[in-house]
Design brief:
Number of helices: 10
Bound molecules: zinc ion
Order of helices and strands: EHHEHHEEHEHEHEEHEHEH
Strand order of the largest sheet: 2-1-5-10-9-6-7-8
Number of strands: 10
Distance between the termini: 6 Å
Radius of gyration: 17 Å
């Protein structure tokens, strides 16, 4: 069965300024690497629809959505926080980034594709029910997961977050929701300095100290993620795929390599095949060293293709 590669032109037009690490070239780095690695031709390409208001409102409050719409600038940059800005294309980009996760969900639940990678920006996992922050406007992975639950009647969802930063927004949205298991690793202490206190029963948060590498990451996955995933028996897996735990990344201090991203993807695909008919939806989060981002995302996608 095919693997979907979902993006939208607006993902390249959302631009937070010439020195911002969360830049349009990130998507070129991934797309170019997929071509040079010979993988692109095996993917089925889709254009992301815009998420509807109803789809966004499953995970965000109406007032928050209205604020983001109202703050969309007609020209120039409007800053939501010191790290997060909107240009005139950002609102459309955010709607299509969330819509990519919706389309991915539809494709894998209907059995048209085995898995999907959403190559979209802005990323989403710092966006909470009521708050945009940390380069994120709407929570793409949460919109996808909520679509699986509400539109398709899926009863058990897993969200796996291997971005180097804690996915505080996703945790905010799904905390204490027994339908959703979230497992994550993140560097701690590091932005947004959350994830270690008052953690709900459906959250498996594994903080890693700066300098942690492959062994510590793989131990966390084997000892904590995989047993929790086996107990939850998800009907679909969502991956918050941030590649900023790579050793070349300038924003953090973990020491992963593309081999670690290939390994964890194999493990997750195996969980998906055991419990979820192979269904796996991956959405891009961080990753700011462009070459490392391209290589890591390509290995992640290669493992999805191999197993499809
Ligand atoms: Zn990150």
């Amino acid at each position: 069965m095919p693997i979907a590669y979902i993006t939208h032109p607006s993902s390249l037009l959302h631009d937070m300024g010439p020195y911002h690490p969360e830049c349009p070239d990130r998507l070129h780095a991934i797309g170019d690497r997929l071509i040079s690695a010979g993988l692109d031709a095996y993917l089925r390409h889709y254009t992301a629809p815009a998420a509807t208001h109803e789809q966004l409102a499953r995970v965000h409050d109406e007032g928050f959505i209205a604020t983001i719409v109202a703050e969309s600038p007609a020209s120039g940059l409007h800053f939501i926080d010191p790290d997060t800005a909107m240009n005139p294309h950002s609102l459309a980009a955010a709607r299509h980034a969330a819509g990519a996760a919706v389309l991915a969900t539809d494709l894998v639940v209907r059995g048209e594709c085995r898995g999907a990678f959403c190559a979209v920006r802005p990323p989403g996992h710092h966006a909470g029910r009521n708050r945009a922050m940390g380069f994120c406007l709407f929570n793409n992975v949460a919109v996808g997961a909520a679509h699986a639950i509400h539109a398709h009647g899926i009863e058990r969802v897993a969200v796996i977050d291997f971005d180097v930063h804690h996915g505080n927004g996703t945790e905010d949205i799904f905390t204490d929701d027994p339908r959703v298991l979230m497992v994550s690793t993140f560097q701690h202490p590091l932005y947004p300095y959350s994830g270690t206190e008052s953690v709900a029963a459906n959250m498996v948060n594994i903080p890693l100290a700066a300098g942690s590498g492959s062994a510590a990451f793989r131990d966390a996955v084997r000892d904590h993620w995989l047993p929790a995933l086996e107990r939850h028996r998800p009907d679909i897996l969502y991956v918050s795929a941030g590649f900023d735990a790579h050793r070349e990344d300038p924003l953090a201090g973990l020491e992963l390599t593309e081999a670690d991203y290939a390994w964890v993807t194999r493990e997750l695909v195996a969980v998906a095949h055991r419990h979820a008919h192979g269904r796996i939806v991956s959405t891009l989060e961080g990753g700011y060293a462009l070459s490392a981002l391209g290589r890591s995302a390509a290995e992640h996608i290669r493992e999805m293709l191999v197993a499809a």
